[in-house]
Amino acid sequence: MTTGDVVHAAVAASPITPEEAYAAVDSPFCGAVVGFSGVVRDHDGGKGVTSLSYSAHPSAERIIREVAEEIASRHEGIRVWVAHRVGPLDIGDQALVAAVGAAHRGEAFRACSDLVDLVKEKVPIWKEQFFTDGTVEWVGAGA
Asked: How many CB atoms lie within 10 A of CB 59?
């Protein structure tokens, strides 16, 4: 194997799970499967959070695929799975799930970390946060 493979890269309106990501990148070649789950938490900046809603620019699907392909091209032989939710999410829901399978753990960890960082940096997705005090805040989760 030379460059990596993108198994899945999407913006999803329905729930995403680490289990589906791990299963998709696992293969007999992989000695390591590393994942990341961005989970909706009940607080931010010292304030209680009740829920979130994510909105995506129409280009988000294309850009998340480009990001996954860039990571796959940087790390030899990896398998990449990544998805970011859009729409309303509750506390505990998965907002971003990423998984990387690789022959060795070091490569899998590096690639997964690079993948998550690049998704957060480049994919045009915005978060609307609803707080327990009734206030609402928009946060840029991408470019």
From this structure: 14
